[in-house]
Amino acid sequence: MAKIKTGIPGLDEKIDNGFPEGSVIMVYGPPKCGKTIFSTQFFYSGLQEEEPGLYAITGLPLKQLKNMMRELGISPTQYEEKGSVFYIDLFSVQSGRAEDAVDTEIVRNVLPREMTEFMIAFSDGLKKICHNALRVRVVLDGLTEFVEINPEVLKRATKILIAKNKYANATMFLTYTEGTADPRTETLFKSMVDGSIHLDGKGKLVIESMPMTPCPIELNYRITKKGIIVR
Amino acid sequence: MAKIKTGIPGLDEKIDNGFPEGSVIMVYGPPKCGKTIFSTQFFYSGLQEEEPGLYAITGLPLKQLKNMMRELGISPTQYEEKGSVFYIDLFSVQSGRAEDAVDTEIVRNVLPREMTEFMIAFSDGLKKICHNALRVRVVLDGLTEFVEINPEVLKRATKILIAKNKYANATMFLTYTEGTADPRTETLFKSMVDGSIHLDGKGKLVIESMPMTPCPIELNYRITKKGIIVR
Amino acid sequence: MAKIKTGIPGLDEKIDNGFPEGSVIMVYGPPKCGKTIFSTQFFYSGLQEEEPGLYAITGLPLKQLKNMMRELGISPTQYEEKGSVFYIDLFSVQSGRAEDAVDTEIVRNVLPREMTEFMIAFSDGLKKICHNALRVRVVLDGLTEFVEINPEVLKRATKILIAKNKYANATMFLTYTEGTADPRTETLFKSMVDGSIHLDGKGKLVIESMPMTPCPIELNYRITKKGIIVR
Amino acid sequence: MAKIKTGIPGLDEKIDNGFPEGSVIMVYGPPKCGKTIFSTQFFYSGLQEEEPGLYAITGLPLKQLKNMMRELGISPTQYEEKGSVFYIDLFSVQSGRAEDAVDTEIVRNVLPREMTEFMIAFSDGLKKICHNALRVRVVLDGLTEFVEINPEVLKRATKILIAKNKYANATMFLTYTEGTADPRTETLFKSMVDGSIHLDGKGKLVIESMPMTPCPIELNYRITKKGIIVR
Amino acid sequence: MAKIKTGIPGLDEKIDNGFPEGSVIMVYGPPKCGKTIFSTQFFYSGLQEEEPGLYAITGLPLKQLKNMMRELGISPTQYEEKGSVFYIDLFSVQSGRAEDAVDTEIVRNVLPREMTEFMIAFSDGLKKICHNALRVRVVLDGLTEFVEINPEVLKRATKILIAKNKYANATMFLTYTEGTADPRTETLFKSMVDGSIHLDGKGKLVIESMPMTPCPIELNYRITKKGIIVR
Amino acid sequence: MAKIKTGIPGLDEKIDNGFPEGSVIMVYGPPKCGKTIFSTQFFYSGLQEEEPGLYAITGLPLKQLKNMMRELGISPTQYEEKGSVFYIDLFSVQSGRAEDAVDTEIVRNVLPREMTEFMIAFSDGLKKICHNALRVRVVLDGLTEFVEINPEVLKRATKILIAKNKYANATMFLTYTEGTADPRTETLFKSMVDGSIHLDGKGKLVIESMPMTPCPIELNYRITKKGIIVR
What we know:
homohexamer, 231 residues, two-stranded antiparallel ribbon, globular, 7 helices, ten-stranded mixed beta sheet
């Protein structure tokens, strides 16, 4: 099974060289546990490996996400220019001010409750970045936003994404804020994804499931100025 | 009482040579505990015994299920050619792309919420594989998908299947992801089936009930590259 | 107070020679604890005492119930011929296939959600078996099916049955799968019946209430090839 | 404060010669704890003191209630003839058979969900028995039936009864099956009545509240062939 | 900060000479813990200090409230004649009998669900008693009645009252039966009032919050023939 | 990262000189724990640093808030005259009396359920105080009011505020009464804000999260006549 890099120093060697290509990985935990930091590392790691990436952000404006990347020393600018990056900003358009949410060649602004528009933006973005790419990465950061709108719709959407995965050879990375959905929906998420990783916000990272890897694997993590590090 | 093989090395001898013919067996447990692996072993074991099989899959595309079988060393191809296999793929059609869900002689694509269509596909499939067969196996992997749509419909459907059982001499195998329904529905499932087996995802397999067998029976299991093994 | 036999070896002597005539007894417990076996023993014991019986079955087809009776060495055939038996099969008609649910002189097929039809079948059956009988027995195996449809309707129906009881001199036997209704409804059941017996599925039988008998009475039970035995 | 007899041997002396006249007393506990037996003793005790009584019964037919009274050695017949008794049977009319629920001069049959009709029957009955009486007793056995229909309606009804109390100089006796309503409604009941008594079904009787009496008072009770006795 | 007397012997000295003038105080606890007795003492204490009072009663008829006051040795008659008392009876009108709920110069009968009418009665009453008064007291005994109707409406109403407070220089006294609302609403109550006092019904009184007073303060209380006494 | 003063003596030095500029900080805890006192100190501290402020108050009338400030020795009058203060009073208009809720140049009265009007008032206020200001502070005291109306609307509104933050260089301060929303919504709040501080009402202050600061940090606090002090 082909593997792709996780982007987290110290993690790849624990799970046989990274995530399985084409798999769906969920990272979840309490608020402020490091989900978005993990996401940006995963995303940027792909860019560095010539794997184009689509990043859908729901919890903060794209502008703030980019500031955060910059502070972590991550600079996707050159990849954006090469056309191997696509963003879906599901936050900014909520401000109600048109100037906060301007679409560009590589940015699409969508309301999270407009699932159909999101799906179209997603397809468009995937088509753009997949062009000539062997592998792509998809980050959906995070599920929480959608859970609130309609869990059933979310589930269906996630399945569409998974189905598209096979077609586009994409590896999907999902984040979820623990405790914002009911336990049954959380179980359902774990059931739907191929692998799930828990960050407890206090330094413990547990790989609860990962294809072809005996689990659970308990590790320690730390959030540094350069991002998450696993020991 | 006639018995049929479970397909799991080490399990048949613990329960008096296998599952009772014509019974309804449920395997359940947390996400990633091995339910689908168990299902494919049960399914394939029947094919090897000249017992045609119907496999209804809800949690991943049929294509991915077959990849998984191949990795386990299971190859249903020859049985497919003999007409003793029928698949109902309840996943792929959700992608919304027609090319992902093409019906063939032995594959039917159905949306899980279209219970009537599923029932028709089920009847058609059963009719096809039952032709000239003494015994058939039916795998419904898994119930979880239907629970979400309508527990009442599911219950009725399961009863229809059980009733058809007697007519077609079919043994039914159901999987269910623990924790995705409320406890009352879980109790109801256990009440409706003839036998239930719990996999805890950590190596413990418990036969909670089995017709004419004193229960519970606590066993250990392991997921190997060849599938589940019981000790 | 006149008593009638329970049909369970070892139980009558514990409760002053059996159940009070005309009472309503509920047997309940987890799935597979032996409720239906108890029911058939109670039912058959009446037939042997020249007490006609009505058996309403909801959880499996009448055909399978009879197989089960046969395996327990219970043969109601001669009583069926004498016209002292009536069955209401609430399961088979759910298969949707007319040939699975054929009405006869002594069998009526009804959908559990058609409460009115069930009530008519019940009245008809009671009228038939009550003819020239001093005492009759009524088995409703089980309540669970009805609970799911409409607890309020069930309660009213149970009361109708209790009212008819007095008129027909019938003793009623109800089964219920613990945990499929909410605790309040379970309390309500116990409140509505005259006596309740709990089987824990692990060998413990508790008579929780019984008219004119100090309770609780804790006993042990075993499911043998001949049915339930109490020690 | 004037007191009236409870009808339970051994109880009056514990609470300063009985219940306060004009108060509302609730007796509650699990199924089969003795609520109806207590009710009949309270009711009959009044008749013996020349206090007419209205008995509204919901959980069994009036006929069975009278059988039960007879077995306890209670015979209201002479008081019925004197016109100092009125019954409201909220059970029998549910059988659907007209002959089971025939109204007489002193019996009214009402469906529990027809709250307005019940209120009319209640007013009529009260008017009849209050004629020339200094004190009357009202038994509502029990609340459970009404809780299920509409807790809000029940509460309003109970208040109407309490208001009528003052006018008719009636003492009201309510029963309630613990656990059939939600805890908030149970608290509300205790809040609405003047006194509440708990029977635990195992021999312990607790006077939880009683006007002008320091509570709780813990007592023992036993159900004998002559009814409840307190020690 | 000006203080007003609580009316409870022994309490004023524990909280720096009484309740802050113009504050909103809630007294809550289980049924029969003494809330109404506390209310009448607070109310009467004001009258004695030339502070007119408005008493809104929901759980019993005004007539019974006055009987209760009389038994406690409280006689508001002279203050009623002076025009410094106003009652809102939210109970009696529920009996449905016009003669039970007659409005007078100082009594208004209102249905608890007619919040608007209650507000009008409240305003009218406040206007009447405020005339020429420096301070007034308002008792709302109790909130429970309104909680059941519409918590949102109640909250708004309570705020209106608080706003009117400032205008009329009124101190408000609220009672609430613990356990009849959900925990969130209980928290909300505590959040809305300025001070809250818990009576546990077993002799413990806790001042949970009180403006400018370090809390909690744990005290003992007793219900005597003269009302509540704190030690 | 630029920092702004918290206004709480002893707190700034614990978190690297104050809150990050432009961040969203939530202070939450049980009723009466000191949230509004904290808010006024934060608000006033900004004014003293030439940082204009917008204060939206929901739980008490603006007039009472100002009284409270005055008692704490806080006097925003001079800043009001300079035009660097704006108030939104979401309480007073609920009294229904026009004279209690008069709009001025720097005060806007809005009903909490009129979210759109609140948003307009918010925008207007922000525009006014931002004029010529480098930094502004926004206090929303508190969220609880809005949670009750519509959690979804609240969330969207909070996001709009956060988005406007970036534009106006505002730091936002939110308060929330613990236990008035369900746990999932509380988790969501913590997920949405940049930092959260818990006051337990008993002297313990915990900084649960704060951008670029290792958390949690456990501190002690005391409410004095001059406001909250941290040790």
